[in-house]
Write a structure and sequence with these properties.
The chain is built from 9 helices and 8 strands. With about 250 residues, the chain is of the alpha+beta class. The chain folds into 2 domains: about 150 residues, no CATH class; about 50 residues, no CATH class. A two-stranded parallel sheet has the order 1-2. The chain starts with a helix and ends in a 6-residue tail after the last strand.
Length: about 250
Amino acid sequence: MPETLLEKGIPTKTLNELAKKEKLGTGKPPISEFHYWWTRKPLITSRAVLLSTLSDILSAKELGALIGLDGNGRVKPAFYDEPWKRAPAYRLVLARARELYGEQLKVYDPFAGSGMIGFEALRLGLSVELSDYNPVAYLIMKATIEYPKKYGVKLADDVEKEGKRIIEEMRKELGEFYPKHGGREVKAYIWAWAVKCPTCGKVTPLVNDWRLSEEEYLAHSVVNGELRFEVKKGKSPEGNVVRGEAGASSAT
């Protein structure tokens, strides 16, 4: 058996850079926002390992082109944000793989977790057998790999329909606890313990961070003896609780 590219060596430093970008912030695939699997393997590294295992004639430069690198092994600017969201041009690699391993190529992953290696293998046109003894991992794989391939667009339509039904049921059952404010739907609620201030006697929430987002925070003040809150833009001040103790910035 010839030595494959994986055995010869692949650009792990740049792959790590891409994998880090994929795992952090908005780089994660949409499924990660639905349910984050703690040991999910980055798609970009799964793709690199599979491609480099399947071919002995694929060069490091050619592998780089398939995963979003330029001719010098650096990340292509246009691909940097989401190379893992594009299926690679794999036909030549697959043709050589069949010469090496035969026509019936199949990838087995007995500890597949959320199934990212299997997902990339399907993108390459391979048959896949995945398993995991963890029932949560098994359910994630069924819902994100098997069912979309089996049911196609109908699955998306059914999920959307069922999601709307659940939301309506929740509105009927819990709507009274989430009233509109100023006639507008509330985007989010922040829950916090509250105590009566020993100085002003007003009920004060205890939070360690007034930040709502990267650009906004919840500002507090006392107006005519009443505690008021409003959303402001800018850097958030420190909260009024530090490790369970009342801080100096209490709204009194």
